[in-house]
Amino acid sequence: MSPAPFKVVFVGAGEINFGSAEGPWNHSKRVESSFGSSLRVLGIIDPDTARAEKQIQLKKSAHVPGYDEAAIWPTPELAGEALGADRIVDLVIVGAPPHFRGCAAPPADLDLRLLAALPKTRHWLVEKPVSAAQPTELAGQRKVLEAYNASGAVVGCGYMMTALKGVDTIKRMITEKGLTVMGTAARYYMAYEYATKPAWWNKVISCGPIVEQATHLASLSLLFGGPARLKTVRTHTVEHSDAPGKLSKLGFDEEATVPPSGRIPRYTAAVWKYKADAVGSLTHVVGLHGNTYDTEFEVICDGTTFRLVDMYTSTPRLFIRQSDKSAEVEVHAFEDDDPFQTQIDRLLAGTPSCTYEQALQTYELTWAIREAGERERLEEQDE
Asked: How many CB atoms lie within 10 A of CB 176?
């Protein structure tokens, strides 16, 4: 007996859902791998219908199962009308830009419109970050969380690093040894030479490198430290106007394309307290040349430290030092680790690696880091 069709709707026909040459993001590929001939893509919701049509034709040309009857809808409302209010959808993947979602009012109320149009959805995978607006009561990010919780569906967010095998190993060892986290330390060193899209360098558009990029490490920090006390966040930055902030390998004309008020910090160093009284820190640097990034995440406990590196590669490595055994460092390499696949598998099993509430807490922390840095700069100017 053949398995029942697995019905999917993609929101967004861009790189997050359908891939590019620039990175491993490609949710459609993972769903196809999981369900093969039982996959039924009901359609793609995207106002750029030509792009959606192109993606479907590429799948059909490659003889990928599941796209023969895929429809294209420019809005959630038209998708809901076409499918009917009682149509069960097994999975909706929300890969639309964050500027259109995460809030309670237009133009960023896409989540609420989707929930209303597809009320029988069983699982939601929402990409990170969950919004692009400053988190406030007026913006309504918490109202979106409440709406997802009220839907009765399983909801996860695309913080794929929480699904890494190395992360699982750290969690398991902390539990097995009865350890208490003393602190977390994360660093993200960006290779900027070939980052030439002016919008990324404009924090008015992209929200800045902590909110948009280092958010993955902020998510890992909260996974091990628990909720943060946002009022304790302290941030120092090196700005574009500081002598150490002059970049020698910019691949575009920042002076002509990004106003000074919108330029991103080159170096951000933040520290905070968790509600469990541990300490967290995060450093983000726009400073490497070439195209290889350098990321590292540490968890520090009494007698044991964990250091996870190479998280953007297919073989992340974990260094463990246990002083109760020896001073030697254990090295674990996790070959062919695909956290994108793992996060979908866990979501469909009912245990998402990152819930929407955890993703919103991450978003609030990254904004607290950015705002603390901006306040610190204003205080310096007043001295």
From this structure: 8
Q: Are the CB atoms for 239 and 370 separated by under 8 Å?
A: no
Model pLDDT for residues 265-291, shown as the tens digit of each residue: 999 999 999 999 999 999 999 999 998
The confidence band for 329, taking pLDDT boundaries of 50, 70 and 90, is confident
% of the chain with per-residue pLDDT over 70: 98
Question: Is pLDDT at 327 greater than 80 in this prediction?
Answer: no
CATH topology (fold) of 6-157: Rossmann fold (3.40.50)
What's the burial of 49, exposed, middle or buried (CB within 10 Å: 0-12/13-18/19+)? Answer: middle
Fold of domain 161-338+354-382 = Dihydrodipicolinate Reductase; domain 2 (3.30.360)
What ranges do the domains of the chain cover? 6-157, 161-338+354-382
Predicted local distance difference test score (pLDDT) of residue 17: 98
pLDDT tier at 383, thresholds 50, 70, 90:
low
Handedness of CA 349, 353, 356, 357 (dihedral sign): positive
Which of 148, 368, 359 has its CA nearest to residue 271? 368
**Predicted confidence band of residue 382 (pLDDT cuts 50, 70, 90):** low
- What is the DSSP pairing of strand 39-45 with strand 71-73? parallel
- At residue 68, the pLDDT reads 96
